[in-house]
Fold this sequence. Notes:
About 35% of the residues lie in helices and about 10% in strands. By secondary structure, the chain is of the alpha+beta class. It has one domain (about 5-75). About 15% of the residues are buried.
Amino acid sequence: xxxxxxxxxxxxxxxxxxxxxxxxxxxxxxxxxxxxxxxxxxxxxxxxxxxxxxxxxxxxxxxxxxxxxxxxxxxxx
Length: 77
């Protein structure tokens, strides 16, 4: 079983492009929901190393949704 050092190596500026991460083993495109519970590719069982970049990738949709709601409820003047 290979373990990836950094899931952001297939991205620009250290962040996966457009909320999609490519599995380095099988090439499948993964979304945050695919890696939310288990840090493994659901297609080939590739193990991603849990680190800050993977955590940011997984929770970014939740944070973005929360920020959009907060900004709409409490607009800045």
